Amino acid sequence: MTTITDRPPVAAAPDGPDGRGAGPGGGAGPAPLRNRWRPEAVLLSLGIASLPMLMPAGLPPGPGNTGLPDLMLVVLTVATLLWAGTRKVPVRWPFLLPTLLTIIAGGVAAYVNQAGLLTLAKDLFVLFWGVCVANLSRDPGLLRVAVRAFVGFGTCYALVMIGGFVLGVDALSGKQPDGMRAMFTFGDANYASNWFICVFFIVRATRTPRAAWRRYAVLGVLLAAELLTGSNGGLLSLLVALVLGHLFRLFREGRAYRAVATGALAALVGGTGAAVVTTVDIQPYLHRISAVHPVLRDSIGRTTDSSTATRSTVFATTADMIAEQPHPWGIGPGETENAMRDRQETYVREAHNDYIASTLERGFLGGVALVALVFALLLTCARIARHGALTGEYARIVPRPELFGALVAVFLISGMFYETLHYRHGWAVFGLIAALHLFGRRESADRPLAATGGGR
Q1: Which one of 4, 22, 157, 404 is at 20 to 30 Å from 28 when CA atoms are compared?
Q2: Which residues, in sequence order, are CB contacts of 88 under 8 Å at separation 6+?
């Protein structure tokens, strides 16, 4: 791999009016060349780029539902350990207590039921996305690499999916064989929706790209891609998170009175909308909207029809399964579908709900672990969102950290409709949040490494 050595140091000159050293003739001194292709920076970028590649071009997943992201994670994990070892810094495990409790709960459930060991191993493996991203981001230069990888590849993938959808190339758009919803290479439209929403909020939190018109163009592309997935749960979580992000910004800027007023107005509008939906027959209006375009038919058109009915059936079935449990240890990780099949249920599916899945499959300890994880995420986001909480370098990379709190709200809401804790990119995003908390705060016990400019 090509290595570019630094220039010899240039004697410092008196600062110019802009605070930078003046070079000969009064100009700014030449910036030293940096090694733009450090191995850990390249592997971090490739790892993030691989996250959506679960079913590229419609190819089926590998054994145990594995894919390219899992292969990249093995390489990235080794690179992270070598990187930490050469710099003699400890490897930190973010959200250690709740994740450890989750693994213990899954292990107990798997042992008691003699089922779910493979799912438990996969869950433990997915956690390493958070570990790798968080520890590499101890270097602000690598944090910048991660942010740009999310934004750059996320935007590129959105353009590819939109182009494939417009041109009718299913291998690019990942269009469902029995509908018009786009899945890209995730194999699941809801999974794809969550990815594009994550990139959307990373763009806003980091203000990347810096030019406003380019940033708004990127946001528009990501929003269009999210809408093409036709995910009702994703759209709901996006709308709620946008409101929460605005409220968090008002609180951060000390305008609490305006935040309270805005929150009350949003609650009034939301409550009124919910009352209208539950008391008025809106099905005829939904049918009219659905007739405008097939994507609307497969998204909004399912709101009070098949989607609601099937999810209600799954919810009722899993609630009965929890009530009928002979012990508090759960049925085993990932065993909901098998348990439904053993019960000869008419509609056999996974739990499609993080809260139910945690309690049903991992028992009482699983429920406690989920509560602990939610508390840890919210506490972490609150700490990094305080005004002046981040150090200079991290604050420049993430000027609006409160939006990560809004992004966590996306997972909390989506968790009522999907099992988002299995999303690989979700744990990578949690790794970004953990890095800001562990290394980017002024009060942090762990000091970040000096910025090396990797990937700049």
Answers
A1: 4
A2: none
Residue 100 has pLDDT above 90, yes or no: yes
Q: With contact defined as beta carbons under 8 Å apart, do 241 and 374 qualify?
A: no
Local structure of residue 345 (DSSP, 8 states): -
- What is the torsional sign of CA 303, 304, 308, 309? negative
User: Please, are residues 444 and 384 in contact by the beta-carbon 8 Å criterion?
Assistant: no
Residue 174's alpha-carbon distances to 54, 283, 329, in angstroms, are: 11, 29, 39
Q: Which two tokens stand for residue 76?
A: 């990235």
Q: Cβ(171)–Cβ(73) under 8 Å?
A: no
Nearest CA among 159, 191, 194 for reference residue 176 = 191
Q: Verify cis geometry, omega within 30 degrees of 0, for the bond prior to 177.
A: no
Q: Which amino acid is at 386?
A: R
Q: Positive or negative, the Cα torsion across 130, 377, 433, 84? A: negative
CB 67 within 8 A of CB 55: yes
% of the chain surpassing 90 pLDDT: 53
Triad 35, 38, 44: Cα angle to 5°: 135
pLDDT at 31: 42
For residue 402, the model assigns a pLDDT of: 95
Longest dimension (CA), the chain: 83
- State the residue for tokens 């799954």: 314
- Strand boundaries in 97-236, DSSP class E: none
Closest CA to 364 of 95, 99, 105: 105
Whether residue 331 contacts residue 339, with contact meaning beta carbons closer than 8 Å, is answered with yes
Do residues 68 and 50 lie in contact, with contact meaning Cβ atoms separated by under 8 Å? yes
